[in-house]
Write a structure and sequence with these properties.
alpha+beta; Phosphorylase Kinase, domain 1; D-amino Acid Aminotransferase, Chain A, domain 1; eight-stranded antiparallel sheet; 8 helices; 32% helix; 26% strand; globular
């Protein structure tokens, strides 16, 4: 899509996955593309229906958690489009982990027992559950890699006040508990995820997407304990399998490394995995929808008018 396409549009931002249009300085139109990123690099080929999967899961999850924390979302006028309130973002990702997996496991297996100021217990295996969920925040980098940061550093650097941190951490744990409950109803375990927050005035809002395969990691609950006992690899629904494929092909986003070629078969496999997660986490059959850019813009404009934004 073009950079300037909506009435009263005042800004445009192209993220790794989303195209974000600011309307009247107070509202956002967010288009979830089929782009896929890993290790903070956009991979060379889009994944069919990925944008629709992310957008529709996020919308369902935001609606299912609005009693915990107000959120930015106002409307989803097209399969891959959302309209919502513009917030002043905290430059943080509130990462919460129920299981030792991914970045936390890589840190743990290197011999370290502290992550973001949080002490991880001895004697854990990959994918084991923590005694209780832990929050391991990361800075939200505009460019390059996000970096781990502790609660104390967040407050010292002014990224959030002590009072704001209490609200952020409380909401994070409650949202994660709700996400785990929703996942359990569909035979899944929400192993870890991240939330992003912002402010309008003094009110803290939940922003962006939640509980999607780009922001979360799910395990199948059936057979999980047995697989842990036998050391068998856990079956998971997340973007981690893409990261693992990249690592196996000697790419971790470091200077001088080249993204491996993505075959048609591999692109279709990733698409199927995203659709599988949609169906598992929502309990609904995925209905693929493909709109032209023109139809998407028309639907967004109609929604903007209905919301009295334009």
């Amino acid at each position: 899509m073009n950079n300037s396409i909506f009435p009263n549009q005042t800004a445009f931002y192209k993220g790794k996955v989303r195209d974000v249009y600011t309307i009247n300085e107070d509202y956002l139109v967010m288009i979830a593309s089929d782009r896929i990123s890993a290790f903070d690099v956009i991979l060379p080929r889009p994944i069919p229906f990925k944008g629709q999967v992310l957008n529709q899961i996020a919308a369902k999850m935001l609606k299912a958690t609005v009693d915990i924390c107000p959120n930015w979302l106002l409307s989803t006028p097209a399969p891959n489009a959302s309209i919502g309130k513009k917030c002043i973002p905290f430059k943080l990702e509130m990462v919460v982990r129920g299981h030792l997996v991914g970045h936390a496991w890589r840190t743990y297996s290197s011999g370290k027992r502290t992550l973001c100021g949080v002490t991880m217990p001895e004697g854990l295996k990959e994918n084991d559950a923590f005694p209780q969920p832990v929050i391991t925040p990361a800075t939200k980098a505009e460019q390059g890699h996000d970096e781990d940061i502790s609660k104390e550093e967040i407050i010292a650097k002014g990224l959030a006040t002590a009072k704001e941190w209490e609200t952020l951490s409380s909401c994070t744990l409650k949202l994660f508990e709700r996400g785990q409950s929703i996942a359990a109803k569909h035979g899944l375990i929400l192993a870890d995820t991240k939330y992003e927050f912002g402010k309008i005035g003094d009110t803290i809002y939940l922003m962006d997407e939640i509980h999607t395969p780009d922001s979360s990691r799910y395990f199948y609950a059936d057979g999980f304990d047995e697989r842990q006992k036998t050391g068998e690899r856990q079956k998971q629904l997340s973007k981690e399998f893409v990261r693992e494929w990249l690592i196996e092909n000697n790419f971790m986003g470091k200077e001088g490394q080249t993204v491996p070629e993505m075959s048609d078969e591999w692109v279709n496999t990733i698409s199927r995995r995203y659709i599988e997660l949609y169906e598992k986490v929502t309990g609904e059959k995925f209905q693929p929808e493909t709109f032209s850019d023109e139809e998407t813009i028309n639907r967004i404009n109609s929604a903007l008018q209905s919301l009295n934004i334009i």
